[in-house]
Amino acid sequence: MKPRFLLAIWLDGFRTDYLSKKKTPFIYKLSQRSLTGEYQPCLAFAGIGASVVTGLSQQKHGIWTEFRYDPKKSPFKWTGKALVINRFIDAIADQTGCAGQLVRAAINLSVFKTSNRFSGKTYTPMALKIPLHSLHSFDTTTSHKMLSRKEAFITPSLFDLLREREIPFKALEESKMKDTRIFGEAIHVDKKARLVFIQLAELDTVGHAKGPRSKEIHRSLRKVDSMVRRIIEEHRKSFDTDVFIFSDHGMVEVKKVVNILGQLRRSDLKEGRDFVVFLDSTLARFWTQKNGCKRRISEALDKVQGGRTLSEDDLKRYQAPNDRKYGDIIWLADPGTLILPNYYQGTKLVKGMHGYAPGTRELGSPVIIYGEDIPSGRVQRTATPMDILPTILDLMNLDTPAYVEGKSLLNSMNSTSS
Prior knowledge:
This protein is an alpha/beta fold. It has 3 domains: about 5-60 and about 145-250 and about 360-415, 3-Layer(aba) Sandwich (Alkaline Phosphatase, subunit A), CATH 3.40.720; about 65-140, no CATH class; about 255-350, Gyrase A, domain 2, CATH 3.30.1360. About 30% of the residues lie in helices and about 20% in strands. It has 13 helices and 18 strands. The chain has helices at about 25-30, 45-55, 60, 85-95, 95-120, 160-165, 180-185, 200-210, 215-235, 260-265, 295-300, 310-315, 390-395, and strands at about 5-10, 35-40, 65-70, 140, 170, 195-200, 240-245, 250-255, 255-260, 275-280, 285-290, 305-310, 330-335, 335-340, 350-355, 365-370, 375-380, 415. The strands form 5 sheets. It has an 8-stranded mixed β-sheet with strand order 5-6-1-7-16-2-17-18, with helices on both faces. Helix 7 links the parallel strand 5 (about 170) and strand 6.
C-alpha cells in the first residue's frame, strides 16, 4: 500500500466564481468528486494567515493588520530624530506625483532593511508609501508572513504541532519564494513528508493589478489550474494523496476611490498635531493626540462618502483585537471602494482589493477536500479561517488541541455518495 499523504494548497485570492469548468477545468472536475463548501474571511489583512495556521480568531492571537501604533517598540523609532528632514522629503514626494512616490518607497525600503539589522526582524514590510514623518510611530506584526517559522505565534501553529509530534512536513510559502520556485519545489516529491503546505500567490497579485474580471486573471487561472494538476499528479505516483484546496479571501473589483486625508483637511484637524493615522487600502485607523479630538475626527469621518466608522459592536462582531495599538477610531471602506492615497499603493489605482466587511459576496472562496475515502458532498456551514487548521489535522488523523476555536469541516458534511 502507498503511504497516506496530504497536499494543502492555499490559492491566494481564489474567489468562488473562479471555480468553473471553463476557468479552472482540472480543479472544477476534482471538486465534483470532493467534499466542497463556501468560505468567508474575517475582516483583516495580516490576521487571516495567523488564524489559518493557529485555528484562533484575531481576538485570541492578537494580529490584525501589518502595522500597529507602538512608538516605544517601533524598530523605526530612530527615524524620529530627523522629523524636519522627513517632513521636507514627504512634502516633495506629495508634490511630485509618481516620481516622488518612488523616491519615498526607495527610502522606506532602505529604512526597513536598516531597521531589520538592529531589531533582528527578517521580514521587509510592503507598506513602502508610509510618510517618513510618521514611520517612527509604528511597529510591525511580522510573524504573519513567516507562517512556518518556529514559535511564530503566541500559541503553537500547525507547523509547531507537527514538530512537537515529530511529523515531517514541507512548507512552501509565498513570503519566501515566488510561484515559479514554489511549483518547482512542489513537483519534486519529498517522500519523507506527510504534509506539503503550498501557497500560490499569482491570483492575488494579478487580481489586485488587473481586476477579478480581467483577461489577465483568466490566463492566470488556467496557469494555476495547470500547476495544481501537475502537483497532484506527481504526488499520486508515490502516495495515496488527500487534497485540501482553500484560500484566504476572494477579490472585489474596485469601482470608487476616496481621499480620507483630503476630506479631513477641510476641517481644522491636523495630522501629527491632533492625530496619527495609518491608511491601509480599505481601513483608515486613527490615534488621537489631544483631548476632544476623537469626537471631532468622528464627526469629520461621518461626512466621508464610501464607508463608515466602525462601532465597538462592529469590532466585536468582526473579531478585531481589543487593543488600542490598532486604532482609537477605525473607518472601513464599502466593498469596491479604495482609500487613495494609502500607504501600500500610494497614489496608484489598483483594479481589485480585499479587506472589506465579512459577508461581502466577492470575498467568498471555495473549499475543496478530496480523498479516496472522503465522500463527495457539501459542508453544511460557511467555513472560516479558524477552520483550516483543525481540518488539516483531521485529514492527517491528528487530534486538535482544545484551545482551537475552529472546527474540522469533515464534521459538517452532508454526504451525497458513499
